[in-house]
Amino acid sequence: MKMGLFDRINRGLGGLIGAVDTETVRIGRAARAELLEVVPLGTSVRHGDGVAERVCEFLVEVTVEDAAPYRVRVRQRMAQVFLERPLPRDMSVVAAWVHPRDPRRVALDFDAPPPRPRAAPHLSAA
After folding, report:
1. 81 with 56: CB under 8 angstroms?
2. 9/66: higher pLDDT
3. Residue 7 reports pLDDT greater than 70
């Protein structure tokens, strides 16, 4: 499916404010993402009386069922309260969704338990 001009503009604007990639969540493969680095950026977002969120750039190691783990950078919002102190140990690995046609498109899911995908077996030189 070809992406139109307005789709590209909306996706670009969503990235600036750290919006979750809803298409990736809708059609993506479940994955496990280990948070290796979290860099808060300047943009904060608050919806009504909701929790303040900060746009962050995450370096994550993604593991999808039967595939080798890989690293990718993801720009997405995270609750400000989690950035005010070191992340709890149970938040260093989160659920994620990976776009089936573009594995660099990853949506982090801080509310769901991370799956335990089986990584692809490593090939050994004989």
Report:
1. no
2. 66
3. no
Handedness of CA 23, 52, 17, 72 (dihedral sign): negative
Cβ neighbours, 10 Å, residue 29: 16
Task: Report the mean per-residue pLDDT for the chain.
Answer: 80
The 3-class secondary structure across the chain, one letter per residue, is: CCCCHHHHHHHHHHHHCCCCCHHHHHHCEEEEEEEEEEEEEEEEECCCCCCCEEEEEEEEEEEECCCCCEEEEEEEEEEHHHHCCCCCHHHCEEEEEECCCCCCCEEEECCCCCCCCCCCCCCCCC
Query: What are the tokens at 3?
Result: 């992406």
With contact defined as beta carbons under 8 Å apart, do 112 and 72 qualify? no
Is 110 in contact with 44 (CB distance < 8 Å)?
no
Residue 52 identity: A
| pLDDT surpassing 80 at residue 72 | yes
